[in-house]
Specification:
single chain; 8 strands; 55% strand
Length: 111
């Protein structure tokens, strides 16, 4: 989706984000950051697909160990899905910036 400026989640503002898609998988790309005054080693998020029990993802802040993909899932049943991403125990000074979301479907595309 061109022109999308992303979504930032942080304490005191929005702490969750949901989106719907149709397909078999997705990749959420982005970055986590924190203020130096709050030296936690990592952020924890919860990821829920289609209202099922949320799974915890750990996202390190350190640039040597951090992940470029916030979360991803492949092999979902073909169809409509709802994904909810929430900060788990959000801390002051921590931010999660969702930069883009890539969707997969089961149909081969033409190049």
């Amino acid at each position: 989706d061109f022109g999308w400026e992303g979504k930032t989640l942080e304490k005191g503002k929005e702490t969750s984000y949901s989106f719907d898609f149709e397909g078999v998988g997705f990749v959420i790309s982005g970055i986590v950051s924190n203020d130096e005054a709050f030296p936690d080693p990592a952020m924890e998020i919860e990821l829920s697909i289609d209202g099922r029990n949320p799974e915890t993802e750990i996202l390190p802040y350190d640039f040597l160990t951090r992940k470029m993909e916030i979360a991803f899932r492949y092999g979902l049943p073909e169809g409509k899905h709802t994904v909810t991403l929430s900060l788990k125990e959000p801390k002051q000074g921590s931010r999660l910036k969702i930069e883009k979301i890539l969707f997969y479907n089961s149909k081969a595309g033409k190049i």
